[in-house]
Sequence to fold (424 residues):
Amino acid sequence: MRRAVILLMALWAVGAAARGGTDPAGVPVAQATATASPTPGVSVKDQPYGAVGDGVHDDTAAVSMALADLGAHGGGLFFPAGTYRLTQTVRLSAAHFTVSGVPGQSILTSSTLEQLVRLQDCSRGTLRGLVFQSTVQDDRKFNGGHTLLLSQDAGLSDITFDQCSFTAPSADMNGVYFMTHGNTPNQITGVHFTDCDFSEIGRIGAEIQDLAQAQAVTVNISDIGFDRCRFKDCGLHNWGMGISASAGRYDSGLTITGCAFDGVRFCAIEAMFNQVLIDSNQFTNARGEKTDVIHVTPKEFGLSGFVISGNRCPDSTYAGSKIWNCSNLASQGNQFVVSRAAFHLRDDTNCSFTNDVDDTSGPSAIWEDSPCSSMVFSNCQISNVRRGGGAAPLLASGVEGDSGMTFQNCDLRTQGSKVIHAKS
Fold:
């Protein structure tokens, strides 16, 4: 298992290096059909586009024309500081391109749209320094709107978002939404977010959803990354980052590294996303109801190749890691302070927990509510003290029989029986 962890982290590092393809300024390297430039590119305010960017004028036509030209010719498009009001969804289909702005000051906004910007049939592009802002009110009642939709139509590959921001306070709005529902392999691959902000979002900061209906092993979504991003104030069950799927989709390759989750959690529900690395993230103010820090519950399909390492949470009022239906999951070097169980387990097998440090004041340190097998805890420190005094048991099990857990060289600062059968 340790070798698998090292291999997965090494593969992530190699992939990050291979995704370079940029010059020192971060501009994608030119190919014959699209000449890259060290300058930001053509300004959307210049003619023939003539965007105003005052937050009052309708800039939809100007932005749409500029994006269409970018799709036809590649190169660069620049949004000077300003607020560009949109009244219709704008679409980008391009290759070998850069769209840039002034971080925090180049704002694409709408108070009416279900989708602001839609990317489809894009490859080898960078979007940098843009703010995607929805000011839609709660009474609009969209069935899941988005400031940015990444669509499977004709495919997306090798797209980087750098220093971008996403905000959409309406209860029906997501920040970024990945959507695929066909059966063509690798419809969305190589999409990476670096140093981006997802805040004040009514539903989910970033959601990856595979809606294909036929059960198959086609990998529709792969190689998705979030590095040094910030998630805060995301409304739907406090999901900062969420992945989900239907009909047993087998998507692969997600990395979430060095991110800050403030009051929100990582959630993978009913998902079949294999080879996932959640590494060196900080979770703070995790105080909402059911805001477990790491939530991995892939329904009946199973999930493998998950690595949860080096994460920190000093103040959760709920559980630490909720891990259900997983196999070959590795948790190592995490430090969580929680008020419920440090680990909530169900139907897991062949999982390892190494050098984890957990301090919990919940009813039990580990809660297993359905049989698990081959679960190994090595060199872990688990402290468990009930609120109001006294020590709680290490393991409370909702099932009869052997828990299928092994503890090796662990510092278990608990009292009471190792296993207590507490039927729920």
Q: What stands out?
A: Helices lie at 2-18, 60-73. Residues 2-38, 386-392, 415-424 have pLDDT under 50 and may be disordered. Residues 81 and 106 are 4 Å apart (CA to CA).
